[in-house]
Amino acid sequence: MYIIDTHTHLYSESFDEDRTAMIERAIEEGVQKMLLPNIDLDSIEPMYTLCEQFPRNCFPMMGLHPGYINEKWEENLAIVKQHLFERENIAVGEIGTKHSKTSKPKRFEFKLNGLKSLTYQLSFMQEMPLMKYLKSLMT
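^ that's the sequence the OP posted. Answer follows.
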């Protein structure tokens, strides 16, 4: 059996204590590929470091999650775009459909729509798949 984990943030600090052992166990259980979507600027280097540690199993996806937009979103997107064009990524993402639990102010709504549009454009420019995170609309 060949399993692909299509959405994991194993580079997150919350996995620091047992990350390597956990990934090795997953591989032993048949999880051959793990797709790692970027979240924000702080997650870029940890994501790439993990992919370098497990080059046959962990694959980066470059994006800026709308739940993490702030006043510097355009500046941040420029940095994400640079990583997308200059480094090897398997897809563009992540982009989400729902805000984080602490809802963003209304002034970010137009920026959120602009970010989604720009992310789609980046996906087309690079001829790469787009990883879109769909959170339950029932919650």
